[in-house]
Amino acid sequence: MNQRGSRSLVLGIQQGQGIPRHRGTLEGSQGAPKRRGTTCSIIEFKGAFGPVSQETQQQADRIFSEALDLPLEQRDIFLAESCGEDEDLRDEVNLLLGQYGSTEKALSSTDPSHTLSAGEAEEGAIAAPGAGDLLGNFRLLERLEDTNYDRFLAEAEGSRERVLLEVLGPELDNSDVRRIRVEAETITRLEHPGLLGLFEVGTAILGTGPRAFIVSTASEHQDLMNWIEQRKPTIQSKIKVATRLTEAVAFAHGRGILDGGLHPGRVLVDDPGRPMIRAMGLPRLLHSEFEPAIDGLACRAPELVDTPWSRMDARADIYSLGGIMEWLFRHDLEQDDEATNELRRVINRAHANDAETRYASADALLSDLHGMECGPETLDTPPLWEDLKTFSQVHPHATAVAAGVSLLLLAALAALIVLA
Fold this sequence. Notes:
The chain is α+β, with helices and mostly antiparallel strands. The chain folds into four domains: 6-107, no CATH class; 134-217, Phosphorylase Kinase, domain 1 (2-Layer Sandwich); 222-374, Transferase(Phosphotransferase), domain 1 (Orthogonal Bundle), CATH 1.10.510; 390-419. It is 41% helix and 16% strand. The protein contains twelve helices and 14 strands. It has helices at 54-68, 72-83, 87-107, 174-188, 224-231, 235-254, 282-286, 314-328, 338-350, 362-374, 384-394, 396-419; strands at 6-11, 24-26, 37-38, 41-47, 134-135, 138-143, 150-156, 162-167, 195-196, 198-206, 209-217, 222-223, 267-269, 275-278. The strands form three sheets. The chain has a seven-stranded mixed beta sheet with strand order 3-10-11-8-7-6-5, with helices on one face. Helix 1 packs across helix 3 (87-107), helix 1 (54-68) runs antiparallel to helix 4 and helix 9 (338-350) packs antiparallel against helix 10. It is globular.
């Protein structure tokens, strides 16, 4: 977002009006360029108030979204706890809540142009997305048939860049659409080597109502489960995987992004073996596990059964990391030695049912994992031969070329020795 001297109003792609931070004269108009983060139209507002930092704006958006989930009688206490003595933050949240009143009336109106239908197809809606359809700023090219989801190869309008667009379910209600408009940009701004970022999170009317869709890179990555099965990495390599995932979660938490739905199926691995979490923060944004874990994996924190998504804290993601590690090291934990016992202690603490028993933060878990990864008396480091074997499996052509060059060099060296 811009400084308050010239701020942008995000409008959803349907008829509903957005929530303007109106502090002056309306100067812009619909049809301005799209921005990264949400499928939207942009309206510029010029105001006379002083600037507010981008961090304060993002905090205000988050607090505002959480406040909408609470009954009116609980909001004042929640705002006092969340804003503390930060008057600028409280003013910004009050501004959003004040503008929300008229917006809520428009969105919940019985006027058919504003009502989101729940059983009949919307006029102009896409009954079922397919090749050639336009969702937001993206043209669908072809459905990916090898998946159980509505996933498409697509390209941005005016660009030849290929992306992966996935339509999510179930249908959204008005509060879901509002929340996505407010918070989507925050998670699309996450950039970290351990996070497979999202280019965009948007909403579109499909069939009988609005659904969310996400856009990400079309690069090929292997999911963690298949990677483990095919590569059979050493225990030390698995510790590196767990460490990199925890680093990514700690990075997201440091920017106020929680997830609530992490599990092995959400982890992808690139050719060199670097893990990445797909769509970090999306379950909490959608208030739904958009990609449930396979049966038998305990990765969702027990307290989330009775806790609203807006009230979850970082320890829920710590539990999920513990569940991922429980699955990742399930065979290794059968051993009985000092190093494995230390690994078991770390996993048990992260995966504890009692939130108070878990690590208080991802950084605390990361500290213990770093100790296991770097300590001189921890688990055995894989031998050089294992590294060469892994490289040859991933890059067979490069390995053949390197072997040929090595043979030529040895032959040349032998010839020089004979001549000498």
